[in-house]
Amino acid sequence: MNKPTQGLSPTLIILMSVATGLAVASNYYPQPLLDTIANAFSLTPGQAGFIVTVAQLGYAAGLLLLVPLGDMFERRKLIVFMTLLSAIGLLVTASSHSLAIMLLGTALTGLFSVVAQILVPLAATLAAPEKRGKVVGTIMSGLLLGILLARTAAGLLASLGGWRTVYWVAAALMAFMALALWRGLPSVKQENHLNYPQILGSVFTLFIRDKLLRTRAILGCLTFANFSILWTSMAFLLAAPPFNYSEGMIGLFGLAGAAGALGARPAGALADKGKSHLTTTAGLLLLLLSWIAIWYGHASVLALIIGILVLDLTVQGVHITNQTVIYRVQPDARNRLTAGYMTSYFIGGAAGSLISAAAWQHAGWAGVCAAGAIIAVLNLLVWWRGSAH
Questions:
Q1: How far is residue 79's CA from residue 19's CA, in Å, rounded to a whole number?
Q2: pLDDT, tens digit, 9 for 90 and up, residues 299-356
Q3: Nearest alpha-carbon partner for 32 in 139, 148, 125
């Protein structure tokens, strides 16, 4: 690997954190706008909801097909190019006058917004080994804030100038970010001689051969499933009696989740000190215990908020630890490791949503909490079996 032309300064860490947050936010702008977009294009709720599905499918394709390219090409150019293509996708959406064109723009944006998952391993590569976990934790905090603030920003901008304003502003921000990244990032290229099919194949080879990667990927899958189980059905609980909360009030619970998850940033620093086993074990135990408070949430808002704080703290803490640990496995394959790990993580989130919806429909909040607790126990068993690594 060529030596970077500059180190990882605090300013560059902030730039990469903001870029990561903006990139991932692109997939979350449509969620609060679906009703408005449905009215604008005369869509059914199901057709409008497909916009979010296309964003997720685009992101999933990008994880598998584009993130490994970071192990082939000079990464500054690749990151800037993908950021610009994501901005073009936002422009297509902003100027769309039919569902088909909007879906095209959404798919392009989702596909290239995985640039966030190239920035994370780049930060790990540039960071000093003793600070790698802390840096990864900081970048992941930027990603989380992007997810949280995307919905808030989209709602605010739409109320000021209509739903298209959201996409015009987002496209301009991504274009500006591409320029900032071009000026700020050092030149870093991996020196390997694999072609594209070999690079893709090696993602699966790494997953099959490396037990540590498999264990951490399964932990990520199951922890993110826990996250999705809670957040998919929580709106149903809060909108029903005895709470009867409005959508705006329900949205505020996301702040509790963000507070919890941002509190997990020190997990990376602990992993740097060789305490990844401790942070993982403690995190998975707390994750299981959080479901007790969440279950009491059917009668107590305070209990629910405590449960949200603990669950999001542990999910993010385990996630940061997982990434810090797997980046030590094979430094010249960090983008492929990210592709394998994040694909597993994404599958867990999708499965958690399906499990949560089914549990709510058949057994209400108790069923949702039981599903979450079972997945948390399964996660502990996976960790127990794989913790020899």
A1: 10
A2: 999 999 999 999 999 999 999 999 999 998 888 889 999 999 999 998 888 888 889 8
A3: 148
Residue 32 has a CB neighbour count (10 Å cut-off) of 20
Main-chain dihedrals φ then ψ at residue 117, nearest 5 degrees = -85, 0
Checking if the pLDDT of 193 tops 50, the result is yes
Amino acid making up residue 138: T
What confidence tier does 247 reach under pLDDT thresholds 50, 70, 90?
Answer: low
- The more confidently predicted of residues 263 and 237 is 237
Domain residue limits, the chain: 10-191, 201-386
| Position 6 confidence tier, pLDDT thresholds 50, 70, 90 | very low
Query: Taking a C-beta distance cutoff of 8 angstroms, is the pair 103, 51 a contact?
Result: yes
The neighbour count for residue 261, using CB atoms within 10 Å, is 28
Q: How many residues does the chain have?
A: 389
Taking alpha carbons only, the member of 77, 48, 83, 76 closest to residue 62 is 83
- Which option is the CATH number for 10-191: 3.40.50.1820, 1.25.40.10, 1.20.1250.20, 2.30.42.10? 1.20.1250.20
Structure tokens given for 371: 């599903």
Q: What are the b/e assignments for 341-362, b being 16+ CB within 10 Å?
A: bbbbbbbbbebbbebbbebbee
The Cα 12–Cα 204 span in angstroms is 32
| Paired tokens of 51 | 């916009």
Write the DSSP string, 288-328: HHHHHHHHHTTT-HHHHHHHHHHHHHHHHHHHHHHHHHHTT
pLDDT in tens, 8-59: 899 999 999 999 999 999 988 887 788 788 889 988 877 887 888 788 889 9
For 243, the token pair is: 């709470």
